[in-house]
């Protein structure tokens, strides 16, 4: 990985806030607490760049990170946080949906799912959104350090099945505890996004 300058640009909740930019954008979506912000920190080799919390619902805005003026990484709020009120959940899903429908610079939406759990109905809906936009699906199975090798293999199969992934799609196991995961992610970025 060869990042020279990763910079937090801004946080916003609606399209008027989004940065003016021509860089390709890669956005991270997934349930609250799945590990989106942690993954961004790990791949950027920063400790608390994107705010992380053991309490779900930490990221409530869209956060834009400029990577070397070549690529924008976008940390989205998580969905499906059961303890949030109906109104709060609606507000978050509006923020996410506006970004997904309005943002022309978005070249790849990446779906994060917890490697320990079966993907939820919300995850499947997000996958439908990705598929209906055309192109490949990129799924990250997070927190793999919490599983044995054998459990991980079984769970990856379950993710493939539940999300209906096909040959052209990408499924990357990820853990903040290993350097290898981050390297694999950057290989994907260089092969498919920045080639
Ligand atoms: P929201 O902002 O609420 O949508 O959550 P998020 O998806 O950004 O999750 P966040 O990165 O805040 O991580 C949630 C919790 O999971 C934190 O306690 C992290 O330390 C933990 N976590 C994230 N990734 C890993 C991982 O790879 N391994 C382990 N063991 N814990 C992780
Ligand atoms: Mg977050």
UniProtKB/TrEMBL annotation:
The keyword ATP-binding does not apply. Necessary for normal cell division and for the maintenance of normal septation. The keyword Cell division applies. Belongs to the TRAFAC class TrmE-Era-EngA-EngB-Septin-like GTPase superfamily. EngB GTPase family. One of its GO terms (cellular component) is cytosol. Residues 22-195 form the EngB-type G domain. Its cofactor is Mg(2+). One of its GO terms (biological process) is division septum assembly. SUPFAM superfamilies: P-loop containing nucleoside triphosphate hydrolases. Keywords: Cell cycle, Cell division, GTP-binding, Magnesium, Metal-binding, Nucleotide-binding, Septation. GO terms for molecular function: GTP binding; metal ion binding. This is Probable GTP-binding protein EngB. It comes from Congzhengia minquanensis. Pfam families: MMR_HSR1 (PF01926).
